[in-house]
Request: fold
Amino acid sequence: MPDGDHAIPALRVEGDAHVVDVDESIYCREAVLRAAYWQTDRCYLFVSRPREGVLRVWIRGKPGGPSVDDAAGAFLNALVDHELRVEIGRETRAVRDLIVAKAFAEGGVLGETLGGPASQDSADSGENAT
Reply:
């Protein structure tokens, strides 16, 4: 991979580990951490920030797990997957929030927690009278 091409994570081998430098202008911290978390059953991962704008991920194999090459490839695939999930989440947040609010409103949950009609009914019936 060319050193000047920052859009491609820099992957190198150091001892028994693969090291991936991830450009934060392409992949957000949340996506990197999620991708790393989803690989923890297959390999050991460590995430650091060696400099501004770069997250470094160290990948080492676990006994009985896949090869470090396979684990690094799986991490890179998961990184793309989670970056897209984060982006889609951002793009659809407003619609999702409206759907959830409507569902809670129709179920009466919001009224009960905010002192709405459900709370008013119990106060009118004298249940809370002292």
About this structure: Confidence is low (pLDDT under 50) at residues 1-8.
